[in-house]
Design a protein that fits this description.
Largest sheet: 7 strands, mixed
Distance between the termini: 44 Å
Radius of gyration: 21 Å
CATH architecture of one domain: 2-Layer Sandwich
Number of strands: 22
Number of helices: 9
Strand content: 25-35%
Oligomer: single chain
Structural class: alpha+beta
Amino acid sequence: MSKRTLLYNWHKSAKANIAQFGGYEMPLWYPTGVKREHLSVITKAGMFDTSHMAVITLNGAGAFELLQKTFTKNLLLCANKQKEPLKNGQCLYGIFLNEKGETIDDAVVYRFEKEEFMIVVNAGMGSLISNHLKDNLNGLDCNIKDLTDKIGKIDIQGINSAKILSAVLNNENKVFDNLKYFTFKGSFLPEFSVRLKDGSSVLLSRTGYTGELGFELFMQSENLVKVWDMLLEAGEQFDLMPCGLAARDSLRAGALLPLSHQDIGVWKFINNPWIFALPYNKEKTGFTKDFIGKEALLDIASQEYTYPFAGYNLRKVPALSDVYDKSKEKTGTVLTCATDIAIDRKEGEILSIASEKFFPKGLSCGFVKVNKKLNYGDKVVLSDNKREIEAEIVKDIRPNRTARINIKNFL
């Protein structure tokens, strides 16, 4: 039986198109349409119900060691350009692998204290990752708590997101001070939480899944609806728009971000755009720590390669379509093919309305998995036997993304 977030009734009253995703009935888009929702995040602000995501907490003297063993990132060498340990108030992206080097799920790990961490994983994955952690305790002192469906979560993304939060935060200057990309303020303990003007407690994280300036708000489930309504009211003057999962998908594809169990999955997590999630040594000849899946990744007997691509117009093909190289030889499959409506080509260069004043028609984009090395600039053909589109292997897709820019530039 499918689940619903506590905002389900709001989505229905807003006439959202509802569909199954990760075991939940979630809004795909609202009557405004995917195009406007996508563009709102690039040019103004969009808000997403992400309460289907799962939260896990780790507490105890063995929490750090457990993460070092099961999570791909080296928590001792992941901050300040890979030279320092993860600090309190910082978070990072990485992968949980099995012994075969295959992705169980990707995740963001948050450090509260030396012995206290939070893990955010994808919808329906809370139990699986919790059990994976428990299976690898081996006597470590660590309390693992799966908070699936007990935490409300809202993502607010786009260049106006900081202004909207300023209107609802208590002491916003202190909260925003030194809040850099992939850092957070607050916790689930009321005395350490970030406060909104109505007294609601939240954990505020400067993260997201769009590539643009944005924040994720975690809160007790009973506060979810009122915080959503508060943000909507505050965001009205800044053209805040509720957005569904379809816009979330097209935005993340253009931002070069993977969808777990589609772009990363039951194949080795290697030779892809996200290998920064692996603890490579400086020479990339090995790893700086031991972790589950390490030996499988070092075994290079058989290799596959994942590359980003961008098309030449907005036409797209379904996932699992075939990929053909310039010799018309079938060489792989399409993992993701979405349309980023905020970009277009001009004299061969991909431009974005984030930095250019023009009217883009949109470009198809996403990821392909192939059986041989390709070079940036190589042309491929994507085909589902009904439609063929030409695409280019690229290093990046949507330019001038705002996620890392100082908040002060947007206030």
